[in-house]
Amino acid sequence: MAQSVLSTLAGIVAGGSVAIVTKAGMPQQDLVSIPWDKLLGVGSGGLAFGVAWYFLQREERLRVAHDRVVSQHLETASKISGTFADTVTKILAEARTDTDRREARLIALLQDRDQ
Predict the structure, then answer these.
(1) Is the pLDDT of residue 61 over 70?
(2) How many Å apart are CA 92 and CA 98, to the nearest integer?
């Protein structure tokens, strides 16, 4: 697709350059009267401008798409790390509660044994 867009742009630029330089509205008698040196300069410059514009626009679209993807990944990573932190906190709280319960039971058993 990029090649077709590029070739279309090049054709438009080249056609416009030819029309401007050769004054398309006026009929030409022969090929010798066409200013080929001017045509080459304007066509090359126009083509270079068109190619540069295309690639700058493409670069901008790629940057915007990359920023969007990075943003989505950062959002997903934040959600995952938040879920992980909540899960770890919950597991630690359950482990503390279980340990406290076992310690209290052990202390109660030892106190009953001593008496």
Answers:
(1) yes
(2) 10
d(CA 36, CA 13): 16
- Percent over 70 (pLDDT), the chain: 61
Instruction: Output the CA angle 50-59-72, nearest 5 degrees.
Output: 155
pTM: 0.44
Quote the CA–CA distance of 43 and 35 in Å, as a whole number.
12
Buried residues in 5-40 as b, exposed as e (16+ CB within 10 A):
ebeebbeebbeebeeebbeeeeeeeeeeeeeeeebe
